[in-house]
Amino acid sequence: MTQTDAQLREIFRSTRTIAVVGFSSNPARPSHYVAKFLIGLGYRVIPVNPGLAGQEFLGTTVRASFAEVADEVDMVDVFRRSEEVAQITADALARWPGLRTIWLQLGISDPQSAALAGARGVTMVANRCPMIEIPRLFTPAEREELAGRG
Fold it and tell me: CA-CA distance, 112 to 95, in Å (whole number)?
């Protein structure tokens, strides 16, 4: 589950669409402001939260579950407890055969899910936040390139 900086940079460069699991309508919650940050960099973000399903936030409709997401996604960004990762991983792998990355936010990890994802060729990043990693890994000019690649 440990990735090099080069591997993380490639994840961010190759990712276009991200499903954010556990999205919050509260702008003070990390799942909200990280989603907004990613949108600002040109990523397409699909919020997933059954309690907010059908509502509009950040210019897009919140989905209740992966089954309601019609599009392919490159990354699933998880803002849920570690105990929920196994089911989220199983659901994501079943829904998107071409999924490339499952990203577990700060404080979240699940080695068994990482092994399951890895066996399917999906990278699992644990205990990290894109809002911390992207500014660390990319210069401001490179972040502009990320935003303009879509």
Answer: 19
User: Which helix (DSSP H) or strand (DSSP E) does residue 64 occupy?
Assistant: none
pTM of the model: 0.95
pLDDT digits (tens, 9 = 90+) for 70-124: 999 999 999 999 999 999 999 999 999 999 999 999 999 999 999 999 999 999 9
| Cα distance between residue 144 and residue 150, in whole Å | 11
Fold classification of 5-72+81-148 (topology level) = Rossmann fold (3.40.50)
Residue 23 φ then ψ, to 5°: -55, 140
All structural domains of the chain with their residue ranges: 5-72+81-148
DSSP code per residue over 90-115: HHHHHH-TT--EEEE-TT---HHHHH
Q: Which residues of 124-139 are buried (b: 16+ CB within 10 A; e: fewer)?
A: bbbebbbbebbeebbe
| Contact indicator for 78, 49 with CB cutoff of 8 Å | no
**How confident is the model over 24-78, as pLDDT tens digits?**
999 999 999 999 999 999 999 999 999 999 999 999 999 999 999 999 999 999 9
